Amino acid sequence: MANELPEDLVTQILLWLPVVSLLRFKCVCKSWYALITHQNFVRKHLLHNKNSNTHLLLKTSNKTMDDYVVSRISYEGLQITPLTPLTQPVHPQYFRNGEEFVEFSEVFSISVVGSCNGLVCIHAYDKLKVVIWNPTTRETKVVPESNLPIFAPAGYCTHIQGMGFGFDAKTNDYKIINFCFIVEHVPMTYITGMGSWLAYVDYVNQRDLFVLSFDMSNEVFLKTPLPDNVNGQALLVLNESIAMVAFKPVDDNWREIGFDIWLLLKVGVKDSWNRLFTIGPSIARIHQPLGFWKNDTMFLTKIDSGQLFLYDPSTQQITDLQIHGHSDSKEMQLVTYMETLVSVKGGNEFEE
């Protein structure tokens, strides 16, 4: 029947199918294999499904095995009954690229750098390895080591404090950014074509805090000062805009704190910060914001256990998601990604 249908019609039908089905359909015939693995079809399928097939990746630590686990959470399935597990392991104990291994059970710490077009960038700190991974196709690629100099000029450190990952629309390629100074050791926040980090510059008796953004295509930096007297702690993504979590002291002695959630309407413009809502000290005392879900609801992690909760700012209600992570909540990360055919190898075809 495939031979009787016009190729354009076959293409239009296949564009509606999920990635898992397309991976199976590569085996139907040579012409379907060539079509599904061609870069033009991969790009069309990506654009056609841009706002669907979204999932969440949760990086936690396995308390019994003392290693790291990356799990998948269905974006729409957070309301599923407790009888159905919400988390599904999606990666093996190690990533392999030919004869080269990156074993997460043997590294001191890993970080999910970011996700873009279905590709996830993971950094293993003590092994200095960076891996690009498509969780859906299960392809992985170990990135060549950085050529940053071992010896830096006086006053600069060589330790990589920040890392970013994103897409350059001009070259139709992906970029990894390493920082060796001024950036806080915090994960990147990525919105279309731009990565952002909380950063600082120290002056005499003063620290200048700001958001440092990098345009992936034009390779230029943009600086956005924080609102006056605001102590930013983390950047998140809300509706394709940068959101910030900031400490809010309840008293002058900082005996109790809450969290203010801010939204940046325009990168580079200080006056475009807008405070959305405040999380009170009764919640902030034992929980830490981790990311956004639908309608401004937030994922919170319990500080002492890594337990995952959902917080609705309109009702101030907290829902236990029955997902447990690392006892150190700072080790937990939540990243949104989508299912795509995008290959970590590049080119027009996957290698078999």
Mean pLDDT: 78
Structural class: mainly beta
Distance between the termini: 26 Å
C-alpha Rg (nearest Å)? 21 Å
Task: Write out key terms for the chains shown.
352 residues; mainly beta; four-stranded antiparallel β-sheet; globular; disordered C terminus
Structure summarized in a few sentences:
The chain has five helices and 24 strands. With 352 residues, it is mainly beta. The strands form seven sheets. A four-stranded antiparallel sheet has the order 3-2-1-24, with no helix packed on it. A four-stranded antiparallel sheet has the order 6-7-8-9, with no helix packed on it. A four-stranded antiparallel sheet has the order 12-13-14-15, with no helix packed on it.
SSE topology:
Elements (H helix, E strand, L loop, with lengths): L6 H9 L3 H7 L4 H8 L1 H10 L5 E9 L4 E8 L12 E3 L4 E4 L2 E4 L6 E7 L2 E6 L4 E6 L4 E4 L19 E7 L4 E7 L9 E3 L2 E10 L2 E10 L4 E6 L5 E8 L2 E9 L7 E8 L8 E7 L1 H4 L2 E6 L5 E5 L5 E5 L4 E7 L9 E6 L14
Antiparallel strand pairs: 1-2, 1-24, 2-3, 4-5, 6-7, 7-8, 8-9, 10-11, 12-13, 13-14, 14-15, 16-17, 17-18, 18-19, 20-21, 21-22, 22-23
Written account of the structure:
The chain has 352 residues and is mostly beta strands. It contains 5 helices and 24 strands. The protein has a 4-stranded antiparallel β-sheet with strand order 3-2-1-24, with no helix packed on it. It has a 4-stranded antiparallel β-sheet with strand order 6-7-8-9, with no helix packed on it. A hairpin with a 4-residue loop joins strand 14 (206-215) and strand 15 (220-225). The longest helix is centred in the first third of the chain and has 10 residues, at 39-48. The radius of gyration is 21 Å and the shape is globular. The relative contact order is 0.14.
